[in-house]
């Protein structure tokens, strides 16, 4: 075929492309060099025309995206991503480099956003063989139905690939476009061939289920007519190949304007924002649905021998990960990729052949290192950059200044950030990240596995996602700086909070984010909610967060006197309401209440470390509440057992008294289900198994009760017992099994000491015990003699 049709006198040069296709990008560059148009029209929102010159800035580096959002509702937005290998980006840069005007001609974002008020899906495959990146955000209200008479969404590349005998549209496109080269011979021939194919498809499928495309195409035709009146025959249009037949069709101006009449409209702002290869690879949301953006960037950038260069990059990555990969591996992988391409009837090896070769030669058949190759190279962590002069809301500007001052550069790859809150920089970084989380800008997420509650260290996982630009614009309604916006947002959230636990959590976040102006409002709401809430479960849920806030205040040097008073009052109300709230509960409610009891107990333990807290009074009251729970028959067994266990751990119960409580709970008169629940409460959780291991009296009580359970009741209590004992560590379970095999009570402590336990001597070796004292003196200092003598006496005893 030749390019005569595209070069007809007076007709615009229509360059149909596949969005984000490196082959299309190279072909567009060759076609523009050959035709030298006087103006370049590009599929995209016309509101972005003033931003076109910024694409030539030195600090503009793709991937980037045009972001359009409604001024009155920033969360309603759309993106138009552009990678370095996108045909639209290549056309834009070519126009700027040659001093040629470049304009966007798609449906204005003002209509797109208004139409998508109730439209959730902005992703998926576009009908022009590209992706719906937001540029296809039109609507189908009032649009014509397609030629099929039904709303069937046609994938044009899939149809063409199936017609050519391919079962994979990606592989077909690689074979007919990416691997055929660009700029060789007639530069316009590929576009002529693709236009003929798309014309046949449009004749068969009409709009292909995209009724909104008819309206978009009408607007594009009007913009093309305007350009032709101004520049005559020097007009080049870069758009999705699916639209080319519709743009070529001769229609009346009146008919096109009639389609656009009465469209809804909103006031919009448009700007450039950074984008990522990882986001390009996602099909949903704002993603472009490109499986291999890193591979596409490689194909576009390399001058020749793409497979050889690619496999060399793969080898470098694997060697950096300490895998043995030699030049010989690369040579063999290239040969295998070429052989696979020949066997599969492909003109050149593609990503599939290269991947198969890497798996077989460099990864020894394993998919584990292959996953690393896919993540780092096939997709990649490339993050674009935009100039600081691009339009942005004041909040975005303040965030950028703070990021530069704290040396926190946004990155597409996830990284770990360890902060020392004793250092000013670490504390400021922590405050910034917590403030952003309050605003819904989750740039960083705390790593619970590394950061301890109330300690002076925090660990964060940072990853900058393009959507955070929308979150920042949306949060701009709260203030012009991060501090002011977070303060206003916290105050509003406190007033709108529905539950007491929500307010206490918010108070915790205010301390973490250092928002002193918001804290009085939050505390006032907290006091009001606490006074009105009579649900003990709600009070018990709120207390732990409040106590954590007190500890955070100590670490960060924040005043928390008001929190201490509220926490003490909340605890008193829990003490009064807990015993009656625990009476008459069923099994599920009792298990839930046990969690609340544990949470309150842990909170009061933390509260004891806060100097301003009335430790003695609160802890003494709490121990009295636990004693009340432990003896009331109306309280479920799981709660009575838990109360006894907590008192034992606190040192308020002696071992003999705990054994007495267990003996009463496991007496023959107690129903087996109640006894099993008591056991779960007492020995469930951390440390419960060790109690049985080291106290044979308790172990014997459980053993004798279990062997006496009637057969008909045993199957009922077995699931509860299995749940209790299965939570123990394997070593504890193994030791308990040995005790069962040996039989409890056969050997008392004296006999054990005399005869010697397996693996131990008959008694304490005092000489060996004294050998540790010099080491203790080095660790503890010269003043430890009295302490070590006491420890030695305790060891001997």
Automatic annotation (TrEMBL):
Signal sequence interval, chain numbering: none
Basic and acidic residues bias spans: 740-751
Region (Disordered): 116-142, 740-761
InterPro entries: DUF5682 (IPR043737), LolB (IPR050458)
Biased composition (Acidic residues): 117-138
Domain of life: Bacteria
PANTHER family per UniProt: OUTER MEMBRANE LOLAB LIPOPROTEIN INSERTION APPARATUS, PTHR30634:SF14
Protein name: DUF5682 family protein
Organism for this UniProt entry: Streptomyces erythrogriseus
């Amino acid at each position: 075929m030749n390019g005569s049709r595209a070069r007809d006198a007076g007709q615009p040069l229509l360059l149909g492309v596949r969005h984000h296709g490196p082959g299309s990008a190279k072909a567009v560059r060759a076609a523009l060099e050959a035709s030298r148009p006087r103006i370049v029209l590009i599929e995209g929102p016309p509101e972005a025309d003033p931003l076109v010159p910024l694409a030539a800035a030195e600090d503009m580096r793709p991937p980037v995206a045009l972001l359009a959002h409604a001024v009155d509702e920033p969360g309603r937005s759309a993106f138009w991503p552009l990678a370095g290998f996108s045909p639209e980006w290549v056309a834009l840069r070519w126009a700027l480099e040659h001093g040629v005007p470049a304009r966007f001609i798609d449906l204005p974002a003002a209509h797109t956003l208004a139409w998508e008020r109730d439209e959730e899906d902005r992703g998926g495959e576009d009908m022009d063989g590209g992706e719906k990146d937001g540029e296809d955000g039109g609507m189908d209200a009032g649009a014509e139905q397609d030629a099929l008479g039904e709303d069937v969404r046609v994938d044009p590349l899939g149809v063409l690939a199936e017609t050519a005998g391919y079962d994979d549209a990606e592989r077909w496109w690689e074979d007919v476009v990416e691997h055929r080269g660009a700029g060789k011979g007639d530069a316009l021939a590929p576009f002529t061939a693709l236009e003929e194919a798309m014309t046949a498809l449009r004749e068969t499928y009409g709009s292909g289920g995209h009724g909104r495309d008819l309206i978009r195409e009408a607007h594009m035709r009007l913009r093309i007519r305007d350009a032709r009146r101004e520049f005559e025959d020097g007009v080049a249009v870069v758009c999705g190949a699916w639209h080319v037949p519709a743009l070529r069709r001769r229609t009346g101006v009146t008919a096109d304007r009639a389609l656009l009449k009465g469209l809804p409209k909103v006031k919009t702002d448009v700007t450039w924002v950074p984008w990522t290869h990882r986001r390009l690879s996602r099909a949903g949301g704002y993603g472009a649905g490109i499986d291999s953006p890193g591979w596409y960037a490689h194909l576009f950038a390399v001058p020749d021998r793409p497979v050889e260069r690619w496999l060399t990059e793969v080898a470098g990555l694997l060697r950096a990960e300490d895998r043995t990969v030699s030049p010989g591996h690369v040579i063999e992988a290239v040969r295998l990729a070429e052989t696979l391409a020949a066997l599969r009837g492909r003109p050149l090896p593609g990503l599939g052949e290269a991947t198969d070769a890497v798996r077989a030669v460099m990864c020894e058949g394993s998919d584990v290192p292959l996953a690393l190759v896919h993540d780092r190279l096939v997709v990649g962590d490339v993050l674009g950059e935009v100039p600081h002069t691009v339009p942005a809301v004041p909040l975005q500007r303040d965030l950028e200044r703070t990021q530069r001052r704290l040396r926190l550069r946004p990155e597409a790859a996830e990284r770990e950030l360890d902060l020392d809150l004793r250092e000013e920089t670490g504390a400021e970084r922590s405050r910034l990240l917590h403030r952003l989380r309050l605003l819904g800008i989750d740039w960083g997420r705390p790593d619970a596995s590394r950061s301890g509650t109330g300690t002076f260290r925090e660990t964060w996982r940072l990853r900058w996602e393009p959507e955070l630009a929308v979150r920042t614009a949306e949060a701009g309604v709260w203030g012009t700086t991060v501090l002011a916006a977070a303060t206003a947002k916290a105050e509003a959230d406190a007033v709108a909070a529905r539950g007491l636990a929500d307010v206490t959590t918010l108070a915790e976040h205010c301390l973490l984010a250092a928002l002193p102006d918001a804290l009085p409002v939050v505390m006032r709401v907290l006091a009001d909610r606490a006074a009105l809430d009579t649900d003990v479960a709600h009070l018990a849920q709120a207390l732990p967060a409040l106590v954590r806030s007190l500890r955070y205040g100590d670490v960060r040097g924040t005043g928390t006197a008001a929190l201490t008073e509220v926490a003490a009052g909340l605890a008193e109300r829990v003490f009064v309401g807990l015993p009656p709230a625990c009476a008459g509960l069923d099994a599920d409610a009792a298990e839930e209440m046990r969690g609340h009891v544990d949470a309150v107990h842990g909170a009061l333990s933390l509260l004891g470390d806060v100097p301003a807290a009335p430790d003695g009074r609160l802890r003494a009251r709490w121990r009295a509440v636990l004693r009340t729970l432990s003896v009331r028959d109306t309280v479920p067994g799981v709660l009575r057992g838990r109360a006894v266990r907590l008192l034992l751990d606190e040192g308020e119960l002696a071992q003999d008294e705990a054994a007495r409580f267990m003996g009463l709970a496991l007496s023959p008169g107690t129903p087996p289900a109640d006894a099993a629940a008591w056991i779960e409460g007492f020995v469930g959780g951390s440390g419960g198994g060790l109690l049985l291991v080291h106290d044979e009296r308790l172990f014997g009580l459980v053993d004798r009760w279990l062997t006496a359970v009637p057969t008909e009741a045993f199957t009922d209590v077995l699931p509860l017992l299995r749940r209790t004992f299965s939570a123990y560590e394997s070593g504890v379970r193994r030791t308990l099994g040995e005790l069962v095999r040996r039989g409890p009570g056969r050997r008392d402590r004296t006999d054990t000491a005399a005869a010697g336990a397996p693996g131990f001597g008959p008694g304490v070796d005092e000489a060996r015990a004294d050998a540790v004292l010099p080491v203790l003196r080095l660790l503890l200092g010269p003043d430890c003699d009295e302490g070590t003598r006491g420890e030695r006496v305790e060891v001997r005893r």
